[in-house]
Amino acid sequence: MQHDVLIRGDGCVGRALALALSRQGLRVALRGRPERSSGPDLRAYALNTASKRLLSDLKVWDALSPDARTPVRDMKVQGDQAGAHIGFSASQSEVEALTWIVDAAELEAQLETALRFAPHVERVLDDVPHALLALCEGREAGSRAALGVSTRAHRYGHSAVAARLVSDRPHHGVAWQWFRDGEVLALLPLDRPQAGHGWALVWSQPAERATRWLDASPTDFEAALQAHSQGLAGELKLASERKAWPLQWLQADRVSGPGFVLLGDCAHQVHPLSGQGLNLGLGDVATLAEVLAAREAWRPLGDERLLRRYDRKRVWPTRLMGGGADALWAGFAHDSPWVASLRNHGLNWVDQMPPLKRWLAQRAMG
Fold this sequence. Notes:
With 366 residues, this protein is an alpha/beta fold. It contains nine helices and 18 strands. The protein has one domain: 3-Layer(bba) Sandwich (FAD/NAD(P)-binding domain). The chain has helices at residues 12-22, 49-57, 104-115, 207-215, 218-229, 277-293, 304-333, 337-351, 354-364, and strands spanning 3-8, 28-31, 44-47, 69-72, 74-78, 85-89, 99-103, 121-124, 130-135, 151-167, 174-180, 183-189, 198-206, 236-238, 243-252, 256-257, 260-262, 268-269. InterPro entries: FAD-bd, FAD/NAD-bd_sf, UbiH/COQ6_monooxygenase.
């Protein structure tokens, strides 16, 4: 039997796509990844309003445990000069939350649970006959080149160190971010492992330094965190092991072709300082589902002209977000004194412009 859609990759993007297309009555084959990383999943996602809406429509959001999704009420960004900062507030933006910090393992588990009740999804171990191929294989996708898709990549030479932390101070739904010495330290409030006091850490730094911190003693690592965060989040203690992965900005030259589409990290990768990685992937899912639902009855799923509609809708949002995050990283990584002065004054200037801050927050929330 031919399936309507074959999805390669069953991470969050692949599973969400399978659920979205199943709701349209399409026959979906979901091919999983051949291997999984060992050990606990320490990732946490910052999901915007658009992602929350999609997951709610897929009956996944409300199934998440309360301690696995923490709303961010305020976001505070610190520059690398004294007094340089910018703050965002949900109340000023007149929204429920700026973003939600979600435990990655919990999200994958609830997507998997929802798939058990999806009537038109079949898990497969190998490729099966299909009308449309959707590549959701993630950052290490090996199928793009075989389809004639080229990519433009910028390797930062940095890695992101992830861990879970607890603090002696409640987080109050505040997310913190520090730009210092070419590094980006993010503390994201997450009520797992401890309600009101838990944090998800994402610390982007040169790869050699990241490797050293993975091997450092907990005491030394905590002391470095305390110094870098200036004690603004309280006294931080490790509550998990540490993991790291390399960072790059990647953009495929196209995200569709005759009979295939690319979604998620397979199509675009952005620096985690933007907090938009999975949001872009779930935006791909929502857009592709919308395009396929609106197709003419006579047009096949793999029709190249149909899939170009998806390409056109996604090319600029992903390029602008990736390019913006890359430019922001480059600006803070530059060690020129005049660049340092410009970027830090820029933070304060934007902080004094409430309409501009609201506009930026609305764009990030989707």
